[in-house]
Amino acid sequence: MSGAELRAADLVALRGLAGAAPRLPEGLGGLPGNFRARQKGQGQDVADIRAYVPGDDARAVDRNVTARTGTLHVRTHHADRDRTLLLVADFRPSMLWGVRRAFRSVAAAEALALLGWRAVEAGGRVGGVALTARGNIAVPARGRTRAMLAVIGALVRAHDLALRAAADGLDDPPLDAALQKVLRIAGRRGEICLASGFDTPGAGLDLALAELADRGELRRIRIDDGLRGGLPAGHYRLATPSGQAVGAVFSGAGDGPPAGPSDPLADPLADPVIDPALPPARALQILDMAHGRP
After folding, report:
1. What's the pLDDT at 46?
2. What's the DSSP call for residue 255?
3. How far apart are CA 282 and CA 163, in angstroms?
4. What is the pLDDT of residue 23?
5. Which of 73, 103, 137, 143 has the fewest C-beta atoms under 10 angstroms from its C-beta?
6. How far apart are CA 7 and CA 1, in angstroms?
7. Is 244 exposed, middle or buried (CB count within 10 Å of its CB: 0-12, 13-18, 19+)?
8. Pick from 98, 112, 113: nearest CA to 275
9. Residue 3, pLDDT score
10. Do residues 77 and 44 make contact, with C-beta atoms less than 8 angstroms apart?
11. Inter-axis angle of helices 8-20 and 104-121, to 10 degrees?
12. What is the DSSP code string of 210-250?
C-alpha cells in the first residue's frame, strides 16, 4: 500500500486479517464476537410461553395455550437487535499527511475497514461517510459483503477527491459542521465509528459528538499525528496555520512533541489511538482492547 494512496484491493484484503483475529466476549447486544448492538424492541421469534403474572402486557396473551390449560399464558419473544454500523472517515486536508508508512487518512480508512469487516462477519449492516473539504460522500447501510465493498469504493473515491482538494489549497472545514451532515443520515440505533485526528474541531464539536452519541453507540478512534516518536533527523519546510512557510531542523526522535503514553494500550479507558506508522495488525489489537473495555 502506498502511504499516500488508498487502494480498494488493500482494504478488501483486510477482511482476512479481521476474520483471523481472536473474538472477544459478547458485546452489549448479545451477539457473537465483539460487534455491539442496541435493542430495538420485541421481535417476532417466540422465546418462551409461560404463566401470566401481574404486570404482563395483555397483548402478549397466548389464546391457544390459555384455552387448553384454563389459565392465562403469555408469549415472550427474542428482542430484535439493530446491528447497523456507520463508519465515518475524516479525509479533510489535515489528515492527508504522514511521516511514516501511511497518511493519517489511510490509517483511518484501514481502522474503519477492519471494524466494518468484523461487523459484516457478525451479520451486521454497514454504511459509511467520508468527510472531505469538498463535501461528504455517503453510502447507506446494507448487509453482507456487497455492503462493505460499496463502503470501500466510496472511501477510495472520497480519498481521491480529498487529495485533489488539498492540492487546490483548500483548508479544513470545521469538524463540527461536517458532522452535522452525518447526523442527517445516521439512524437512531446501532453504532457509529468516527476515525479522525480531531483537528480544526470547531466551537460546537462537543455538541455534535453528543448528538451522534444520542443516535447510537459512538466510538471515537483518534488518528495520531505521526510524531509519537518524533520526526526523523533532517531539514523540514513547514507551514503555519496562517499559511506562512517556515524552516525547521530536527535532530532526531527527541524533537517530537509529547503525545501521552508511548503505547496506546497503556490506557485502555481512553479512546483508542492509532499511529499511522503501525501496521494494520497492530492497529487491530488496539481496537480490540478498546472495544473490550467494560
Report:
1. 62
2. G
3. 26
4. 44
5. 143
6. 7
7. exposed
8. 98
9. 77
10. yes
11. 50
12. HHHHHHSEEEEEEEP-S-TT-PPSEEEEEE-TTS-EEEEEE
For the purposes of burial, counting CB atoms within 10 Å of the CB of 238, is it exposed (0-12), middle (13-18) or buried (19 or more)?
exposed
Residue count of the chain = 294
Q: Which three cell numbers stand for residue 130?
A: 467520508
- Let me know if 146 is exposed, middle or buried by CB neighbors in 10 A (0-12, 13-18, 19+): exposed
| CB-CB contact of 238 with 210 (8 Å) | no
Check residue 265 and give its pLDDT.
41
pLDDT of the residue at 173: 92
8 A C-beta contact, residue 33 and residue 23 = yes
Residue segments in the chain with a per-residue pLDDT below the cut of 50: 1, 20-41, 43, 78, 80-81, 228, 240-242, 253-269, 293-294
Q: Given its phi and psi angles, is residue 76 left (phi above 0), alpha (psi -120 to 50 degrees) or beta?
A: beta
Non-local (6+) Cβ contacts of 41 within 8 A are: 79, 80
What are the grid coordinates assigned to 31, written together? Answer: 451477539
